[in-house]
Amino acid sequence: MEKIIDIGQYIEVAVDWLTENFSGLFEFIKNFGNGFIEGFEWLLLGIPFYVIILLLTALAYFKVSRSSALFTALGLVLIYLMGFWDETMETLALILVSTLIALVQGVPLGIWAAKNNKVDKIVRPILDLMQTMPAFVYLIPAVLFFSIGKLPGAFATVIFAMPPAVRLTTLGIRQVPADIVEAARAFGATNRQILQKVELPLATKTILAGVNQTIMMALSMVVIAGMIAAGGLGEKVLEGINNLDIGLGFESGFAVVILAIILDRITQALGQKGNNDKLNNLKSKLNKR
Q1: Considering the entire predicted model, what is its pTM?
Q2: Superfamily holding 27-288
């Protein structure tokens, strides 16, 4: 069927213009970003595997449960024994860097959208587009801007993983009880004080749920980013597919599942504790005044 409207050509022209006029900037970002990610990898790989296993197991024990701690220990030991420890640390480094960038951009944008309905109306359809666009599409501009490697993988991951951080930050701020906000304002609190000492503490549970979802989406995208030489477990999964190596594909995929469950359980637990206590403490402080 012949095209009547060719939107793709305008996108292509825009991308070509950016690559031609800002090639120096993209090269600088690429070098800086690759150095940052590789530095994170160097840090994780420089720590003995048993130290990381002990730290994550202790975190799961104190923040989640004994069963989660046992799963964390056994899962990470299994990853090491299967020979995927280095790839897992590379994947973890890319996830952490991508999640950090997504949160640095997403949380302030979510706060702005919660405070301004016009911003929310503009941001919402953009987030819809970012979430519903097939993940593979993000690899195209990433490669065009930064060639192949770790940074384009992180670039695509940030775009794919940022929407939950924005949406759940906005939701958390808007769900703060209006009477609490009004009481704080009645006692002379400024808008900044209300945000920092009332809204953000009470929205922590919802915001951390957004962090959890951001990490999970980053993990799924990092595996896809193995197609553009981002390294880690994604490359091993792709290698298993290309070589029809069922064993390699299953083992590397299983390592991804273990890592996903560990990160999911820990981040969920961090978001579930303490929110009701914060609300009760804040109400008691306001009542005393």
Answers
A1: 0.85
A2: MetI-like (1.10.3720.10)
